Amino acid sequence: MNSELSASAAPSKKWWPNAAIYQVYPRSFRDSNGDGEGDLRGIIEGLPYLASLGVDAIWLSPFYTSPNKDGGYDVANPRDVDPRFGTLADAKALIDAAHSHGIKFIADIVPNHFSSAHPWFQEALNSPKGSVARSRFHFYDGRGPNGDNPPNNWISIFRGPAWTRTPDGQWYLHLFDSSQPDLNWSNPDVAADFEKTLRFWLDLGVDGFRIDVAHGAVKENLLVDHRDPERLIDALRLDFLNISESERAGLLSDVPFFDREGVHEIYRKWRNVLNEYPGDRMMVAEAFVYPSSRAARYVRPDELHQVFNFNLMMLGWDADAMRSSIQRTLAELKDVKAPATWVLNNHDTPRVVTRIGGIDKARALAMLIHSLPGGIYIYQGEELGLPSAELPDEARQDPAFIRSGGTDKGRDECRVPIPWKTHQLHYGFSTHEPWLPQPKDWDGYAVDVATTDPNGTYALYKESLKLRHWHPAFSADSELYWLDSDAGVMHFVREPGLEVVVNTTDQPIVVESNAQSILLQSKEGSELDGGKLTIAANATIWLQR
Ligand code: ISL
Pocket around ligand 1: residues whose beta carbon is below 6 Å from it? Predict the structure, then answer.
């Protein structure tokens, strides 16, 4: 038997190490005022649903003042609410309402860039070269005759040049859309402003922050060309499969705008700010860095609390690959004594059902990650078994689609508004045409059906989250032991008392097991009899030992 300690630290009463955190994409969750876009009051209306599902916390993608060129990740005022989502009073009401349901609240914070509509950027445009106002961003003269060429050859993550020229001839850097100028963290105004933002939301009662592009705030070699900027962007995409592991490794081993040493200084300071506050506040980093051992550096004891682990999102339904990925993640995080996180999809990626190839595999995969040591993230609609939506190009709004000239379809397909009610206009999401069209065949996924179907994906998630709360095997210090298993199978134990078997093959498989009973299964059809477990094809089963 191969023993492996869980990545979790010592026994802990903290709320977040094992939490199930539900990501709300506010624009698409629920619309309370009939304008076709979700809003904060709509989320308040949806809280009983989330409480009944059993989530521990919600994380909201940005709802701050924004021209909304990149779904609110273009922030024009990080300390106010965009009118499309409501008011600051609504935000306070939502935080309080979540707390009254026993649900924690995590806000999103975007340190890599502001919106070009932010007063600082407007001031920079109206200030001379070399001014303090310009030094809050990355303004440089261009190269070549008259400075007509950008300062370097970097490509934006949404494609097209990473530099845009201003009327006086200087260029500014934007790793994302041209409406998202990158901030210059070597200007002390930037750090001071973000500290103000952290305190603003902490004072309002948030329990933590999700940090957008946490690995990007600090840049190096800003005036040096990259050897292959187009391919570098391919390598950075989570869903880009047309690249070999060795090519990806070569390109990602040194990205001049990501994972620079200076970012850690920022998060050590932020940690000190959070430590000043009462209660158990936390931060989770979106830090997609390579190799994955680098991610552990973001959760050293004096830095952030969690880092998203996107590794399983890049793997197919392959038992060996998933097992090694899980083992590697747990080992890497054990060194820094931070709990693992497990993520199957988010607002930037295809939905898991679509990516992995069907609902059976998606349910089995969910039960696999729900059984691992650490915290889980659930993206809204995942619990309904929603697939990615098909969309006509005219409907697409993602800057990744627009800037790539349509070669990149963008991320709108996973952002389509949630269906709440069967056979109702816009599935009860809104009384108005939703901002992205919903597919015609989503009646079967609607919340009202899902919550009454005992065999549905919602029921599976609800039962799994319930077990995670009461079964002692899910405590933070529970160990995980791998058992020997046949090809295509993962078999492990978490003490005390939980045995997990995953069958990734298309055939039922017989596995030896001395378990006493079946706790939960992703699919009907498994049987436990006289030391033998017959597990259905493409299924995960939890057993009581
Ligand atoms: O989705 C991607 C490419 O199309 C990723 O590379 C993604 O841009 C990257 O993970 C950073 O994502 C975050 O920051 C972006 C924002 O568009 C994403 O929605 C957000 O999750 C810029 O703020």
Answer: 70-71, 73, 110, 157, 176, 212-213, 236-237, 286, 288, 347-348, 400, 411
